[in-house]
Design brief:
The structure is a homodimer of 206-residue chains.
Chain A: H1 9-33, H2 36-43, H3 47-53, H4 57-77, H5 85-102, H6 104-115, H7 122-145, H8 154-170, H9 172-179, H10 184-200
Chain A binds a DNA duplex (30 and 30 nucleotides) through residues 2, 8, 10-11, 14, 35-37, 45-49, 51-52, 55-57.
Chain lengths: 206, 206
DNA sequence: CGTGAGTTTGACCAGTTGGTCAAATCATGA
DNA sequence: TCATGATTTGACCAACTGGTCAAACTCACG
């Protein structure tokens, strides 16, 4: 068992390789569906060798989750309270959509976990995600109070962004099956832009 | 192995019990995560007894899927080409949202399957869902051409309905964790109504 | 009743899975 | 170079899993 301090070159490389392989396997099979052997094979290591770098399957999984959550929430954190409300929000939507396009495995990893009741993430949800959501919901609430955005339920609004964007990653097979040749990500940005612009433009009711 | 024809009273009862138990277990654990023993226990039967009614775990799963798909698609089928376009569509959104509230396990069953690449559903997707989607997309397209609905990408529009509504079932734990005491389904109907009404009202661009 | 079909079960099996361990091999810096 | 710690592996294990089977039990009906 390698120590956490002073990781060797080999340790750094192999731990990274393992996490990459684990992302691939866990995101398509879920925690229970994935086997240590699959991950080891995907990483090009033997099973005992893999378990030399991580104490257990569970440990790989939780390290993956916590390691990726920060990146995953970056787009939301990046909403600037000083910017123009509507444009800030629309830019957030596009960033989030990009995440679905560029990191679909990460999205499916979380989706798998949460659909199954988030047994290994519940704490993270209330400790990390909840405060962030509330901060941004308050910000949006303020913008609405100032008449800069159309009045809506801020939390439901943010859920809407998540569901609409992550759908393209989580339900990728379905979306692609139904769209045939057309790449879903061709029209998705404009579609979501239109949707949220109409929803949020503070205007005489249409 | 009971014959399909002339099922006895006991057969009818037990097959139904098993499917109910299987829905419970599969929807929270996915196919691979669920064990036959879990399902048997949830159904109050012994494992060999359960396997007397269904030849295999796989058989239970596929029977569940195909049995539920029809119900699942009912709200979409019910869109009436003769009705008022906007109101028809908004009613569809609400029906779909009700499904998420009333049948969250069914939603998660499909979600689990599709997130993991739909290995047992791909054929169903292209054979059953695709034609239905195209029929309804064409209908919506027509309504837009007639100026009854604001112009958008019909397929992406339908994906939006699915993702927004199913999110409340599939990500139930997350949504409830983040909303605390407030029941998500209190504000969701109005939120989605507002969202799609703004999106689809054919009006001078706002 | 009694009898034959329908139902239930304990015991069992082979394959898989997460994880261990001692021994072998490799890398590195004194 | 060589000693020492880091890395790798084949063999192994106990628990679990999907599924089988013969024997026992129960039910409906003549």
């Amino acid at each position: 068992m390698p120590k956490d301090r002073n990781p060797t070159r080999i340790q750094k490389k192999n731990r990274a390789t393992i996490l990459e392989a684990a992302l691939e396997v866990f995101s398509t099979s879920g925690f229970r569906g994935a086997t240590v052997d699959q991950i080891a094979r995907a990483a090009g290591l033997s099973k005992p060798n893999l378990l030399y770098y991580f104490p257990s399957k569970e440990a790989i999984f939780t390290e993956l989750l916590s390691g990726l959550l920060d990146t995953w929430l970056d787009p939301l954190r990046a909403i600037d309270p000083q910017g123009d409300p509507l444009e800030e929000f629309l830019a957030y939507v596009q960033r989030k959509l990009q995440m679905s396009r560029d990191f679909p495995r990460e999205s499916r990893l979380f989706a798998n976990e949460i659909v199954q009741g988030a047994p290994r993430m519940l704490e993270t949800l209330s400790k990390d995600l909840k405060p962030l959501l509330e901060e941004k919901a308050d910000l949006i609430e303020g913008w609405m109070a100032d008449g800069k955005l159309n009045r809506t339920h801020p939390k439901h609004l943010l859920f809407s962004v998540w569901s609409l964007t992550q759908h393209y990653a989580d339900f990728d097979v379905q979306v692609r099956t139904l769209m045939g040749d057309e790449d879903p990500f061709d029209a998705a940005p404009a579609h979501l832009e239109q949707m949220f612009r109409r929803m949020l433009t503070p205007a005489p009711k249409i």
